[in-house]
Amino acid sequence: MTFSSPTPPVADDNDTAMRTELKVLGVLALLLLAVEGGLTLSEDRLSADVHHLRSIPSLTSRIRNREESPAVAMQRLSKRSAAQWDSDATQVLFLTSAQQVDQFDLATFQRDLEQQGNRPVELIALHPAKARISEWSYLYRNFVSDRDRAPDLLVIGFEERDLRDAPTAAPSELARFYDCRLDDLNPLSRDDLRSVEDWSEFMLSNASATFTHRRRVEQQLLATLIPGYATSREQIHSAAKPPIPDSPVAPEYQRLQELTALAQRDHVEVVLVALPSRNQAPLDPQLIQIAQQSQFTLMDCRRPSADTPAALSHYLATWLPLQTLLERHDRRLIPAGAQDTTRWASGDRSPLR
Amino acid sequence: MLFNSFGFWLFFVLVLVIYQRLQHRGQNVLLLVASYFFYGCWDWRFLGLIVFSTFVDYFVALGIEGADSRRRKRLLLLVSMTANLGLLAFFKYYGFFAQELTELLHAVGAPAMVPTLRIILPVGISFYTFQTMSYTIDVYRGDCKAARSLLDFAVYVAFFPQLVAGPIERASHFLPQVLAERRPTAIDFRDGLYLVISGMFRKVVIADNMAPLVNTIFAQKAAELSGWEVMFGIYAFAFQIYGDFSGYSAIARGVSKWLGFDLMANFHMPYFAVSPSDFWRRWHISLSQWLRDYLYIPLGGNRGGTLATYRNLTLTMLLGGLWHGANWTFVVWGAIHGAMLCVYRALGDGRSPRAEQASPLRRVCAMVLMFHLVCFAWLFFRAESLTQAITMLGCLGTWGAISPLAQTVAGLIVFFCVPLLALEWWFDRHHDPLWLTQVHWGWRTAVYSYLILMMIFFPPPAPAEFIYFQF
Asked: Which residue has the higher pLDDT, B62 or A334?
């Protein structure tokens, strides 16, 4: 193909024009296919977050099959408590976001949990970027519950409004990494994909790595090419987003309730941990009420006496009532055995109540 | 339903598929239904205004054509003007003038009895009222014949690609296309493809990526900004508004081509203008021609002597500014452009094409100067208030070190906008905005590849509405 300089305008014939435009479109399609192929092959290297998202299936495959769960096994055998079931480590599934997990030292957290519970602990931490209740719900449902797996403990580390009902901020990610399929149609259409735009983004991301990763490529290129971009990016992006209005309507927690109900159905003990944040406002009363009604543990750790990842991990491990939870985990099989276990780790440090 | 949304393209593909299978009358019925649906997606309640405007001008134009006396024709024209301008005045300007009058009355100590209402501005009202008014005036002047079919006329008023942000089409140009059989050709497809891709690039890549930069700078306290930040912020806005509006117009023209219509060009590389009058031959051409034909010339144009010409220029531009919205910032923007046109004329250049025929170096200097004068006016256009605009102007006196924000804004302007300018420079040299459709297909493929990859890989942080929808 040679086109060293633009040729002067020539009289167009309709058929020639159509053939030429089809050639143009054909080459464009080939180019896009090449880009798609390149990105599909190299998506793991795009960012640490993609690498983590891609590793979710293998991480969750470590979780024991539900039939092998100590609690269920105990129910079957009716002889041994989960605490006595020491041939296997206690499995803790820790769901949080990449922004929050940076505050932790996961190795310290695991070691201190082991010391506190006096038994081996296997910590499986899933922390996709900007994940919140919608992403955690799909993670648990699609990679744990639907695959007949059940950890002993599900710990969800959240910040501020993370647990409130709200549509996902990234339909692309749901499509590509969260294994959302036809059986997720109900939560998808009800909660996350509320417009033609959301559905289109979801479908395109399902089909195309290029579409899913376009913002990652953008951020990397701009950070490399534009001086000062890394410093002022947050300032500029926050100007692009409309402010979240303080709704006069009480926040709702339907998705959280669904998630905890699913976990409890799987005989998994649920712990919600409010992680350190600048927000000093009290936790939503609706959330506390749900915690009491649904009998899961809610810990307020927003003002820790710790300022390093290791110290924070130690602090959280200390305050996580592992032994009590595991006992409760055993007792859950007895209808009257469950207790209200809301725990306050900051402020007045009152004991379990 | 925005042109840069998946919803619009699903809608358009559906319309296009049905459209191709219909005969002429069926096509017009489909276009009308699709146009009303398109508009109704914003707010179906305001469909009534379009229908009202359509009925009034349809029957008034028929009445004018059938009237046997000049007096009766004039009376009917007055009915149309009152109806259209009345709609515009109520929905667009009532709140502004009521508030200004209330403040004036307060200032002089008189009780303010003016009721203030919170009125929603119907999308595109300024565009379709100007379009229907131009039709009635043209029929009154005998420049065009009244439409016999209400359906055809309704399609002229509500044609969805240009309904909410123009171009403001003249009946003499557009109505014959509604009346004629339309079979889009491969050349229409080719031209439409170029217009849609280039329009989407300007909207999605240029305008929507400039928008957060502009918002960041204009949201800061003006006194805390440095000269660099203000300057780059205004540059960013210049490209944002150009990308936004010219992008919309190009997409409107492109999808119209695919339907077999030819809309007028609304932009012609305005930042290569070498003088104020050259700028207005390149920027929002359909509005500037409307103002020229229906305001400037009826006021007397340049026929009444120097002072009268200056008065007419200033009045036209002031009203052009006010057309954009009920705010003093728009009035000042119009006044600045009016003053530029007057000064240019006073310097003698208005009567001779010297700047346009100057040496390349002089032309480049004239372009740079003109760009900065236009940017100066954009500051008032974008500012929330005159106070903000003046305070930001004051910041241009304090320079100092370039902050990371200023560096980022400058870097992003260079990254996104310079390739666009280079491309336009190439087209401008050939005096043909559709030059790319005439060159070897390899060049076209290369340019399309760049535009499409930029659209894919540089999506804006958040898609924004078209700025001109609010006008």
From this structure: B62
